[in-house]
Every structure is written in C-alpha cells, then in structure tokens.
C-alpha cells in the first residue's frame, strides 16, 4: 500500500522473517535492515490495520557518519577479549543501515487539580570539633536541607509534543541507544529519508495514551515546581481531563548493523544516529582463543625438545635445559587461560542477556 | 452531586510564576496576641489553680474540676533544627511575598493581613513563637537581677531566688520565645515542704534548731526555662595507651629487683554516641550548683504547653539565649564523647590523645520545667533551696554549726593524745622496749585524726560553699 503526504513515494513493507514492518523509499534494498536475513515484501493491508500512516511532524536527523561509527565499534571491540574476526569497523560500517524509529507525540489541553510536596532549600548550622595537645578546636559547618511544604492547586495548560512509545520494544531500544534529545528535533522533510527505512508504529494511539498521560504528569510536575519557585517536587498527584488532542509522529535516527560470531550467527549492533552511542551483544571468539592455545602448546613442545637435546649432548648445560623445560611448562599452562577467559566472558554475557 | 470545595478549608492562594497554574498553601497559623486567660471557675467564679494530684484545674472555692487540655508527648515532642538566621529570613520573605501578592485579591489572605502587622508571616511568627497565651507581668529583682513572670493576680513581693522583698514591676516585653512544651508539677507543695523540713534536719553538721527557725512560707512553684539539645556525636580517636608489666633487673651490687615498666602502644577507635535531651539552663540568675543537682528531669513527662498548667505558679523567661546555651551544650557533649573514647582504650593509662568529632542530627527545644524555689534566713544570712517539681529531689544551701565540727575534730585527736601520753608517762606498765611501738601507734591515731578532720571540714564547707 502507498502511504501519503510523505513528500516522496514510499511503500509499506514487512520482513518475511522477523515481521518488522517499514516504509520503503524508491530504490532501497529489499534486504531486511533488522534481521539481515529476510526479504521485505510489499504490505497490502488496509490503512485501518496500521496505527498511523500520515507523514511525521518532527524528525531528529543523523548527525554521525561512518567515521564516528568506526570509532564506536573499535571501543566496543576493545571491551571483548578475543573479539570475533568479523567484529571490525569496516564490516560494521559497510553493513550499517539507516532506520528511523517512530515515537508518538501528543498535543492536548489539560485541566487538572493537583497536590504535591514542594522542597524549598534552607541551611542549618552544624559543628565539627577536634581535640589534640590538650585543646579543643571547633568550626561551624553549613548544611543545605529541604523544607517539604504541602501545596495544592489547579492547572489549565496547553501542552505540545508530549511523547509516548510507538513500539512495543521502545524501552529496550532506548536503553540500547542511550536516548535522544527532543530539543534536536526539526520539522519533517522527505530529504532526510534518503537511503533510510522508516519503522512503522506497532502501538495505536489508544495503547500509547496511558504512557503519554504519565509524561503529561511529569511535565506538569516540573511546571508546578517552577510556578512555586521550589527546588524539588515529590508526591505529585493530579486528576486531569484532556481535550483538543492531536497525535503526530516523531522519527528517531539509528544505525543497525551486525557481526558474525564463530558459529556464523548474526549479532546485532545498534548505533544512535545522534550521539554514536553503540550497544550490542558481546561475544568473544573461542576460535581465536583455541589458536592461541595451539600456538602456545607448539611453542612449549619446541622448548621441551630443545631442552632434551641440550641435556643429551651438553650434560654440563643441564641446568639451562631444566630451566627451558620449566619455561615450556609455564607457556603450555598459560596458553589455556585465553580459552578459560573467553568461556567465562561468554557465560557472563549470556547471564546478563537472560537477566 | 455537590461539587467538592476547592481549595479546601485552611488553604490560601499563593504566588505562581506560571500562567495557568494556581497554587494554594496551608494558611499560616495565627494566634491572637495578648490573649488573656482568666482562671475563674465557670461554676462559682472562684479562683482556679492547677491541681497536682488530678493534673487539671480545680476551683479553690467549690472544688469544680476541669481536666488538662495539653497532650502528653514525652520524648516525641517536636524538636527544632539549627537553621541559620539567613534561612529563617528567606523563609519569612518567601511566605510574606507569596501571601502579600494575593492579599489584595483574596479575602482569606486579606484577613490574615488585617490580623497581623506589619506582615502576615511576621505576625504569624510573632504570635506563634512569642505568645504565652496568658496575661503575665514581668518582675525584676533589684537585689539579684532575676526576672520572673507572674500571673497578674498573683503578684509576689518576695524574690524566690534571693528572698529579697524589694521587687520592681515593669511591663513584660514580648520578645521571648514561647515555650512549646513543659513538665507539669507532680509534687504537691505540702509534700515539698515536708521533704524540705526532713532534709533540713538530716545532717548533724547543721544547727540543731534549723528546722524550727527556717521559715518556709515562701515556697514558690516556678517553671524554669531550659534548653534541651539532642545530637549524635561521631568521633574517631587515637592515643598511646600504656600497658604495665613487671620486669626483673640486677643492680650494680648484683642484687635482683623487680620494677614496673609501661609499654606505650598506639590504639585508635570510633565512637558513635547519640545524646538525647541534654538539659542546659536558660537562666543565669540561679545558683548553678544547686540547679545542676536538682535538674534531673525525665523528658517522658513532657506535655504540650497549655496555660492551665501555669495557673497558680510562676514562670521565668530565659536570659541565657539558645546560642549561648548550645555552646555550653556542645562543650558538655564533647566531654561526654571524649570520655566514651577513653572508655574504649584497653587501659586507663592514656597519653597523646587526639580525636575528631562530628555533630549530626542536632536539634533543640525550649521547655519549662517545674521547680519549687525557696529561701530562708538563719542568723541573718540567706540560704536558697530548690525542689524538683517532678521528682521531689532537693538541693539547697544549709548553715554549718562549726562548734559541732570543731568538737568532733578535737574528739578525734583524743585517742592519739592519750596513747602518746601513756607512752610518755609509761602508764599501763609500758616497758622501755614497748615505748617506741606505742609512740608509733599514737602517731598513726593522730594522723587518722588529721585526715578525718580535713575530710570533715571539706564536707562542711561543701554544704556552705553552695552559698558562694
């Protein structure tokens, strides 16, 4: 189905493997930019089955390019002992796909009655003393504390662009991407969509409304704090009614890429298109650790052989031969450690992933 | 369904910096200044007074009884933090600004503004902090300088502190903090009198006719001002601690001896000492030694300040300010903490002691505590007395009958002198060989007599010294 008002021809598509659905611009690849395994098929469902297909109101544009991604990948790989060969900046940047994630924005007029405790700072005097040489020394210390005072009131305010998740995985994705500053947003323009996929919303506005309400409440709490010139606010409760609601979308820029591990399994890499914050599943390469073990054992074998030769033909150098044997033993034993290290690291990652 | 009232009762509008947001705050507590409470019996218009046995107001004419209104709070009585003056001023300014803006547009705030001048916040603070809630007059003693608040209808012409009868009365300046809590009198005046009489006759060092000649008509129940301080004292200390051991050595002549040697070892420790309700007197007009002995009060007896507890008693305002009292309180606390640190050392021999002390969770209260004050004259000399109104503990000055002291001292020398004379005149068939030993015995007896005499004189002076 063709979406309208996007300023360019776009097509709704869905991956036949991972079921992520996108809007696809003309000439974009049909390889799924999420699982990198499926093929994007045209999606012919009616508009009613999709939460929203109108062009977004706001968009945060890409600020970083391949150079920043490469640096982020290098830092990421440094944290892994014996990273897989495929985990390198060239592979990751070559495979990186631009995807815009959707987020709901809601404008509304709010009428509410509220109550809260507001914190106003004050200072108290405390003292410190010390005793030495038979004499006391004292000094005054000032500490800042908060006076919590009860306030209540009414509120009649227009709020714009209060956000709410449009994807079921929104929280997890934001944790992986480190969040996006809304102040960096700009009005939507189709030229920002060049060579990019747009992820379609999963959640309807009805589903997203409770999350939006929480954000309205948070914003209102901040404004009440400002209105009362307080330093902090706590226990903010309100009863609100909403009117003049207007739902729109905001697009968030990310890069999605992957590397393959020892078993040729694809491990996804998420990169924030604004801040270059990178995250993904970390896997150490057992294959590379095994190579180190083989090399170490070979070295140890050579050392033992040399020691035997020296001991047989030059009995006066038997001390050196003994030392050589000892060194061979140390090399042989220590070459096992990389495998232990890789095994432990992967186990830990697996536990973290499950948690 | 009726619409819920907004804002609820007791809230007034306050300043908002954002359009479209209305803010309401709890109305500051306003108390009327100079409220006079008449302790007149509602039954017969007779005089009412606080009744120790019932803990309420009783009519002295018809016996009509009214239970007390103040709630017993004990240790849960609210404490105050040591806020800086700047913070207090800022808070006052904030409340004044908030209410001032709205005073012009809301009836509630306008009524607050009308009830208090120059500003609602200041008036609230004045009313809240400085008002005693009962008309009292301040008396100033021209002899000792003590100032005391007296109920208007119970003017006393005898100073309870020094017994002077020349007292000037002047208008009470309402510049004193209002006490929030007090401990009511728990000891009836008759019981206090009986205890005093018993106490006056309890020492053999005092004149035998003291009980008869010391008139106690002026036993006056007085609420004394006190500051209570609470804090947690955290301290780290280190010191060299001495450990004694005995060692043997051989002198230059080859003889073996033993001697005690002290090994000094560094020790350190940490003390976390919570100190609750340390009492510091708010008056400097009373004998500090007497006060220290008598001010052992249990704070579990604290009740909320209520004027009826004062009916029939006097109450003194403080002349030792909170900051001065807190300086003294901190000195006491640090000495208590130092003692706790010393207590952690493995022996009592300590040198090069040093410590750091952090006070935390400091708080204070201003309370009134019940004490019976009295004075009496004996041989034209004035003596002061105090009785704890909660526990009946007595502290006071007593005259000493020096004739008795001297007589006892002289008597203590007699055995030694008799033994010495016996040796000299060889009474009781004392042989030459025995003389030396008898002289030694006489010397010991005389030495004991000297020590006993000194102890006796010090003890006697201690009774009298309280007057100095």
Task: Walk me through what this model shows.
- The complex is a heterodimer of chains A (355) and B (468).
- Chain A is 32% helix and 36% strand.
- Chain A is of the alpha+beta class and 355 residues long.
- In chain A, helix 1 (66-78) crosses helix 2 (89-95), helix 5 (286-313) runs antiparallel to helix 6 (318-334) and helix 5 runs antiparallel to helix 7 (337-354).
- The model of chain A has no long low-confidence stretch (mean pLDDT 90).
- In chain B, 31% of the residues lie in helices and 29% in strands.
- In chain B, strands 9, 10, 11, 12, 13, 14, 15 and 16 form an eight-stranded mixed sheet that branches. Chain B has a three-stranded antiparallel sheet with strand order 3-4-5, with no helix packed on it. Chain B has a three-stranded antiparallel sheet with strand order 7-6-8, with no helix packed on it.
- Chain B starts with 10 loop residues before the first strand and ends with a helix.
- Residues 101-119, 152-157 and 169-175 of chain B have low confidence and may be disordered.
- The chains are: A alpha+beta (355), B alpha+beta (468).
Low-confidence stretches of chain B: 101-119, 152-157, 169-175
Query: Major β-sheet of chain A, in short?
Result: 11 strands, mixed
Radius of gyration of CA atoms of chain A, rounded to a whole number:
31 Å
- The span between the termini of chain A is 40 Å
Task: Assign the structural class of chain B, choosing from mainly alpha, mainly beta, alpha/beta, alpha+beta, or little secondary structure.
Answer: alpha+beta
Give the biggest beta sheet of chain B: 8 strands, mixed
Mean pLDDT of chain A: 90
| First-last Cα distance of chain B | 77 Å
């Amino acid at each position: 189905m063709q979406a309208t008002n996007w300023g360019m021809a776009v097509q709704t598509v869905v991956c036949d493997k991972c079921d992520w659905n996108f809007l696809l611009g003309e000439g974009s690849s049909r390889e799924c930019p999420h699982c990198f395994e499926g093929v994007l098929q045209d999606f012919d469902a009616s508009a009613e089955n999709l939460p929203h297909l109108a062009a977004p109101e706001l968009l945060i544009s890409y600020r970083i390019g391949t150079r920043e991604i490469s640096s982020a990948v290098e830092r990421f790989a440094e944290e892994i002992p014996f990273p897989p060969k495929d985990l390198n900046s060239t592979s990751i940047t070559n495979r990186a796909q631009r995807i815009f994630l959707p987020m709901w924005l809601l404008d509304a007029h709010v009428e509410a009655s509220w109550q809260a405790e507001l914190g106003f700072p004050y200072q108290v005097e405390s003292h410190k003393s010390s005793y030495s040489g038979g004499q006391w020394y004292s000094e005054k210390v000032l500490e800042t504390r908060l006076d919590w005072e009860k306030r209540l009131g009414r509120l009649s305010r227009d709020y714009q662009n209060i956000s709410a998740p449009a994807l079921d995985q929104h929280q997890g994705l934001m944790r992986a991407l480190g969040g996006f500053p809304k102040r960096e947003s700009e009005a939507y323009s189709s030229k920002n969509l060049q060579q990019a996929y747009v992820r379609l919303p999963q959640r309807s506005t009805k589903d997203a409304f409770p999350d939006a309400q929480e954000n309205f409440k948070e914003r209102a709490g901040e404004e009440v704090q400002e209105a009362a010139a307080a330093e902090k606010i706590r226990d903010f409760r309100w009863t609100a009614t909403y009117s003049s609601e207007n739902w729109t979308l905001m697009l968030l820029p990310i890069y999605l890429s992957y590397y393959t591990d020892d078993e040729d399994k694809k491990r996804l890499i998420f990169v924030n298109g604004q801040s270059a914050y990178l995250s993904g599943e970390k896997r150490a390469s057992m294959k590379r650790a095994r190579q180190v073990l083989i090399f170490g054992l070979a070295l140890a074998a050579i050392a033992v052989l040399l020691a035997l030769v020296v001991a047989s033909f030059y009995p006066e150098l038997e001390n050196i031969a003994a030392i050589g044997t000892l060194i061979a033993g140390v090399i042989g034993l220590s070459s096992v450690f990389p495998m232990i290290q890789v095994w432990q690291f992967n186990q830990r990652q697996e536990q973290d992933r499950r948690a | 369904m009726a619409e819920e009232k907004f804002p609820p009762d007791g809230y007034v509008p306050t300043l908002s910096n954002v359009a479209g947001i209305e803010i309401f705050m709890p109305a500051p507590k306003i108390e009327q200044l100079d409220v006079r409470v008449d302790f007149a019996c509602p039954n017969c218009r007779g005089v009412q007074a606080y009744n120790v046995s019932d803990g309420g107001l009783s009519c002295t004419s018809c016996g009509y009884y009214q239970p007390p209104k103040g709630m017993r709070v004990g240790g849960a009585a609210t404490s105050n933090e040591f806020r800086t003056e700047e913070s207090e001023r800022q808070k006052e300014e904030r409340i004044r600004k908030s209410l001032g803006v709205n005073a012009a547009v809301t009836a509630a705030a306008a009524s607050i503004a009308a009830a208090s001048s120059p500003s609602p916040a200041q008036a609230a603070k004045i009313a809240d902090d400085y008002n005693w809630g009962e008309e009292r007059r301040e008396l100033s003693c021209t002899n000792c300088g003590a100032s005391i608040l007296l109920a208007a209808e119970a003017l006393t012409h005898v100073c309870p502190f020094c017994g002077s009868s020349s007292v000037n009365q002047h208008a009470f300046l309402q510049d004193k903090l209002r006490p929030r809590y007090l401990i009511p009198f728990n000891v009836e005046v008759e019981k206090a009198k009986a205890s005093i009489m018993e106490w006056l006759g309890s020492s053999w060092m005092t004149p035998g006719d003291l009980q008869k000649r010391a008139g106690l008509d002026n036993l006056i129940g007085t609420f004394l001002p006190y500051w209570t301080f609470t804090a947690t004292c955290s301290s780290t200390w280190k010191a060299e601690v001495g450990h004694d051991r005995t060692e043997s050595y051989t002198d230059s002549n080859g003889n073996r001896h033993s001697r005690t040697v002290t090994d000094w070892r560094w020790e350190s420790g940490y003390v976390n000492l919570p100190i609750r309700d340390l009492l510091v007197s708010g008056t400097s007009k009373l004998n500090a030694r007497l006060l220290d002995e008598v001010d052992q009060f249990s704070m579990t007896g604290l009740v909320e300040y209520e004027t009826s507890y004062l009916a029939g008693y006097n109450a003194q305002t403080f002349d030792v300010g909170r900051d001065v009292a807190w300086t003294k309180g901190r000195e006491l606390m640090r000495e208590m903490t130092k003692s706790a640190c010393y207590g952690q050392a493995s022996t009592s021999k300590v040198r090069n002691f040093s410590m750091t002390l952090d006070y935390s969770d400091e708080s204070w209260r201003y309370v009134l505590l019940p004490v019976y004050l009295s004075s009496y004259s004996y041989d034209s000399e004035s003596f002061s007395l105090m009785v704890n109104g909660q526990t009946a503990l007595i502290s006071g000055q007593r005259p000493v009958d020096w004739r008795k002291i001297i007589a006892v001292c002289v008597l203590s020398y007699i055995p030694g002198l008799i033994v010495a004379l016996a040796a000299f005149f060889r009474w009781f068939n004392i042989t030459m060989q025995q003389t030396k030993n008898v002289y030694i015995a006489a010397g010991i007896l005389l030495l004991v007599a000297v020590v006993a005499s000194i102890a006796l004189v010090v003890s006697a002076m201690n009774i009298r010294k309280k007057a100095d």
